[in-house]
Amino acid sequence: MSATDRLDSEQVFHDRQALRRADTFRRDPERLRVDDEAWLDHETWISPAFTALGDVAGLCVLDYGCGHGMASVVLAQRGAHVTAFDLSPGYLAEARARAEANDVRIAFLCANAEHLPFADSSFDRIWGNAVLHHLDLGRAARELRRVLRPGGRAVFCEPWGGNPLLNWARARLPYPGKSRTPDERPLRPRDLRPLREVFPGLTVRGFQLLSMVRRVLRPGRLTAALEKIDARLLTCFPSLQRFCRYVVLTLPR
Ligand SMILES: C[S@@+](CC[C@H](N)C(=O)[O-])C[C@H]1O[C@@H](n2cnc3c(N)ncnc32)[C@H](O)[C@@H]1O
Predict the structure, then answer these.
(1) Is the minimum distance from the CB of 131 to ligand 1 under 6 angstroms?
(2) Residue with CA closest to ligand 1 atom 27
(3) Ligand 1 pocket, 68 CB below 6 A?
(4) Which of 82, 103, 129, 186 has the most CB atoms less than 10 A away?
(5) In tens digits, what is the pLDDT along the chain, a chain of 253 residues?
(6) Ligand 1 centre and the CA of 76: distance in Å?
(7) CA distance 72 to 74
(8) What is the Cα–Cα distance from 161 to 170, expressed in whole angstroms?
């Protein structure tokens, strides 16, 4: 698939998704309100990833591939000067409505992550959730380094493709919320190379080893117990991180 076809297909897919969601928010605009704590807890990697971003008050922060814009709102509520972009005008419309419903000011724009319309060294921090695995990582990495200030940092949460059993389940099993663009792929170890070339200080932390059953079970006692076991296992045997469901990447400039 050519780069243009890939971008077109990404945009069409996400615009369709946003259109399906738009009806819910038209009927019930209250649902645009963001519950900060609930959002931070909606996946186990979000809160630690936010911690890796550090205190954002007063900093210029980019929400990279912002989608529905929930992270943008939480960042703005923490005092960051937030700029947020996405390829999908449909998702940007939802993100704008969400910012308005939550009384925060955010600069939104439609842009391609592989060719950013920002001056060099524009941002102190960059946040991204589930977006790098849609991109040409070589191009994305160069643009990330260009727009980050020296001493700045980017943090990304991404699906990880290092577990053959999980890859099999992703490809074969039906489960709720399983809709993907044709070109997205969970990141594999070799995908980190172009990022590491540009960000030699890149660190990778895995999340959800046994507790990846959260993907199909409601959070409850079992998932909480598995999360505790995961925390112990991943601390004692860090090499098990390669079998996790998600990773948090920290890219210091
Ligand atoms: C799985 S969604 C994640 C959205 C959001 N970050 C979140 O936390 O839910 C991936 C997002 O990446 C966006 N995207 C995909 N390719 C892109 C590109 N080349 N430039 C900018 N955004 C892109 C999509 O439009 C979509 O909103």
Answers:
(1) yes
(2) 67
(3) yes
(4) 82
(5) 788 888 999 899 899 999 999 999 999 999 999 999 999 999 999 999 999 999 999 999 999 999 999 999 999 999 999 999 999 999 999 999 999 999 999 999 999 999 999 999 999 999 999 999 999 999 999 999 999 999 999 999 999 999 999 999 888 887 777 678 878 899 999 999 999 999 999 999 999 999 998 888 888 899 999 999 999 999 999 999 999 999 999 999 9
(6) 19
(7) 6
(8) 10
Cα of 86 from ligand 1 centre, angstroms = 6
**Phi and psi angles of residue 42, each rounded to the nearest 5 degrees, phi first:** -70, -20
Q: Taking a C-beta distance cutoff of 8 angstroms, is the pair 148, 123 a contact?
A: yes
The residue type of 219 is P
Q: How many residues does the chain have?
A: 253
Please give the structure tokens belonging to residue 113: 């992550």
Phi, psi torsion values for 151, nearest 5 degrees: 90, -10
The token pair at 100 is 């308005």
State whether the beta carbon of 6 lies less than 6 angstroms from ligand 1: no
Global confidence as pTM? 0.93
**Helix segments in 56-148, DSSP class H:** 70-77, 89-101, 137-147
- Please list the residues that pair with 205 across neighbouring strands: 248
